[in-house]
């Protein structure tokens, strides 16, 4: 069985494991005060090309989303997210459990735009309702689409006009930035969003996300929030070591490029077979629509998510490639799919 279920089926890139082993017996300060974490933060600031940002390393995506949103919002304030957004459908109400409503917005391609947000602001008029305050987006989105620079500029301007916070979940930021359709640089982000994170877990790290807080008003006391949410790790060094390795050279981007290349191979070859896709997704997640009979045949050798029923005979499946996906397995999947279509 070979898995196209997600990009965290494998462990970690060997360079990261080696770095963890090599530093194993060193004694370090706890709670992110170790020299690896401090160096990783400095390095990330260099890569982002800005010193005036706060960077905190956390262990996972849900933890980062809930710690950040709970810290950024006042008790009566709410977040807005596309209905497909990860915080809405896949985080067990983690944000809501911190006391903040998430307002769901239908967005065909998983991306929010000012025109989708205006009706939400118009509908929330006074203190008898929650106050929409934060826009949650992810790049790439839950359905594999990516944000272009001008789309983020529009969202940023909208936030400035309406005194809103723009938060970008970057669990798959590597894949988004390495997409053939991307026109953003890592260093563009502080100009565009108030906070974002760089996902390590889904891009070759064992675990780890680097939260970057750009707007001064969101920075205060963040380590208190981390501690209170159980996110300030005694062995914080483990996160520092990993991010140092990911960003020392180009490993973070090389790994994302590999994942994207494998997805592109699937996308191109499946298109040649006249297979249609549920969404236009130029990143490492694709959503081909195939018949139920083909799905049953493929499931004999491969695991993947059945994403959405399209009609009584067809469903969209989700294929996710990773930093470690093997090219020969992708080629074998394509062959097996061709054979399944014939029979
Ligand atoms: C966009 C996005 N954000 C956040 C998460 C949550 O990450 P974790 O499973 O590490 O909590 C995921 C997980 O798949 C995700 O896809």
UniProtKB/TrEMBL annotation:
GO molecular function, one term: lyase activity
Enzyme class: lyase
Domain of life: Bacteria
EC number(s) on file: 4.1.2.48
Pfam families listed in its UniProt record: Beta_elim_lyase
Ranges for domain Aromatic amino acid beta-eliminating lyase/threonine aldolase: 17-289
Cofactor(s) needed by this chain: pyridoxal 5'-phosphate
SUPFAM superfamilies named in the record: PLP-dependent transferases
Keywords from the named record: Lyase, Pyridoxal phosphate
Family note: Belongs to the threonine aldolase family.
Name this protein carries in UniProt: Low specificity L-threonine aldolase
Originating species: Neobacillus rhizosphaerae
